[in-house]
Amino acid sequence: QVQFVESGGGLVQAGGSLRLSCTPSGRTFSSYTLGWFRQAPGQEREFVAAVNWSGVTTYYADSVKGRFTISRDNGKNTVYLQMNSLKPEDTAVYLCNTRPPRPDYWGQGTQVTVSS
User: Within 13 Å of residue 94, how many CA atoms lie on the same side as its CB?
Assistant: First the structure.
C-alpha cells in the first residue's frame, strides 16, 4: 500500500519560515510529477506547488509564488516545500501526492499554523 508521509509542520509567527518534507512509503516516485496541496478548515483542498520528475520544472499557485519553493531529492525519495514569509492565510494541513493526485495516496498531512 502506497501512502505519502509528511513532516515539518508547526506553529510559526507571520513572516517566519518552515520546511516541509514528504516521503512516500511503499515505492519510489522518481519518474512522477509530485505536488504539495493544502486544506484549511471548512475549505476545499487546493494545489500549492508541484515539481516534475527531474526537479527542473516547477509550478506554483499564485498565492504562494515568490514565497514558497518546491524541490526534490530522488536519491532520498523525498520532496520538500520551503515556505518563507508565511502569512496567517497559509494556515492549513499540508499534504503531498502525485500531480494529478491519486485518492488512495493521501496521507495524514502536516499541520502548519501561522499566528498574526
Answer: 30
